[in-house]
Write a structure and sequence with these properties.
Elements: E1 4-12, H1 15-26, E2 34-38, H2 45-56, E3 70-73, E4 80-84, H3 94-101, E5 105-109, E6 123-129, E7 135-142
Helix pairs in contact: 1-2
Length: 143
């Protein structure tokens, strides 16, 4: 059974600091890596993805839209495949997921149940409020 290993915990005081944490985190990512993003609405999941996309070499903004299930952001280093499963209660079609897995780094917002993703040894990013603009960002990985 895969175990979640916490790699690091950060306390950020602004969205800019959260973007910086994400930018540094992205330096370790490889094509076909999976990132599971958890946090309340407004906690900064989209802000974190913007930091990753900046590192990948794109200035296109990641848009938070719970009405759009899939967004593909083209970038110089890797594409960012963003699944927003808020309206689907975390459910995703296996074939659809596999179709996109090898096209870049896959970020899943609102995964709800991590058991589906464990086989891919995903990273986890848990973001929680720590004040109005401050956040606690906990990064882990299933091994």
């Amino acid at each position: 059974m895969a175990k979640l290993k916490i790699l690091n915990t950060f306390k950020t005081l602004s969205p800019a600091e959260s973007i910086s944490v994400a930018f540094d985190f992205a330096k370790n990512l490889k094509k076909s890596d999976v990132i599971l993003l958890n946090g309340e609405i407004g906690s900064g999941k989209t802000t974190f993805l913007n930091g990753i996309l900046r590192y990948f070499g794109s200035d296109e903004p990641v848009v938070s839209s719970s009405f759009k299930i899939l967004s593909v952001y083209k970038a110089k280093k890797f594409n960012l495949i963003h699944f927003d499963l808020y309206r689907l209660n975390g459910n995703i079609d296996y074939l659809m997921f596999m179709e996109y897995l090898y096209q870049g780094v896959v970020a899943v917002e609102w995964p709800y149940d991590n058991r589906f993703y464990i086989r891919f040894k995903p990273y986890t990013v848990d973001i929680s409020f720590w004040g109005k603009n401050s956040r606690i960002i906990k990064i882990g990985r299933y091994e």
